[in-house]
Amino acid sequence: xxxxxxxxxxxxxxxxxxxxxxxxxxxxxxxxxxxxxxxxxxxxxxxxxxxxxxxxxxxxxxxxxxxxxxxxxxxxxxxxxxxxxxxxxxxxxxxxxxxxxxxxxxxxxxxxxxxxxxxxxxxxxxxxxxxxxxxxxxxxxxxxxxxxxxxxxxxxxxxxxxxxxxxxxxxxxxxxxxxxxxxxxxxxxxxxxxxxxxxxxxxxxxxxxxxxxxxxxxxxxxxxxxxxxxxxxxxxxxxxxxxxxxxxxxxxxxxxxxxxxxxxxxxxxxxxxxxxxxxxxxxxxxxxxxxxxxxxxxxxxxxxxxxxxxxxxxxxxxxxxxx
Length: 323
Description:
Largest sheet: none
GO biological process, one term: siderophore-iron import into cell
Family: Belongs to the binding-protein-dependent transport system permease family. FecCD subfamily.
GO molecular function, one term: transmembrane transporter activity
Keywords: Cell membrane, Membrane, Transmembrane, Transmembrane helix, Transport
CATH class: Mainly Alpha
Helix content: over 70%
Number of strands: 0
Oligomer: single chain
Organism: Apibacter mensalis
Radius of gyration: 20 Å
């Protein structure tokens, strides 16, 4: 409990620092006593950015955590298994088919249009992975299949880019770097709704996952409906990953970094404790990344890859040593 409180306080402090940090830093005095214009800047722009960062910090680690528990694979994560790329492909289809015109105005439709398309892309890929997983027990083979799916989606995206108009191409390339900037209040609200629904589905799945970790047969004896469990996890992962990808771009490796870190520091821990740790640690991590972005101007994907790739290599080497 003490650890949860410390993490919660840290996240609140980092959130406040994010509100004060940007192209022009603001002090606490400015936040509470400054002119109305500055307050409006903080509320309309920086608050939206910071809230989007928090939502990403919740969505990506929880998605990775659920996939790793479902497939019993420490490398299972939306970007590694091709789910993020499939969501990006669905978004690309919307942008390059003319849907990008809607996105320029940041209306309700733009948020829902991207999220629905990203959700469908993530869902189709997740169903395919579930089907493939039934006949594959080798961890390395399963991960290779994920990379192949990701590469295939990337190839289709490149084909769309090759034949696209310059304005659509520019818009997609900017989106693909991953950014917390430019979201309207309406888009953040849509993002929040999807995250809450996905998180509720994740929490519903946690208790049943405890029985599942003992084996499918044992879970059935306990009365766990395996089909329902997998559906709940798919809904959670697709909503969380799809909404994050649609709103912020295809952010990679966060779903591996945070769950792995939590297991290394607080293992063994009950699944309820693990998912809460993933949420708070994920929020703190993404808020830190946001601060680094403010000073370096680097896209989020570059920063997450710089941390994520060594993490994946470490997990693979550790897994090989154990086996």
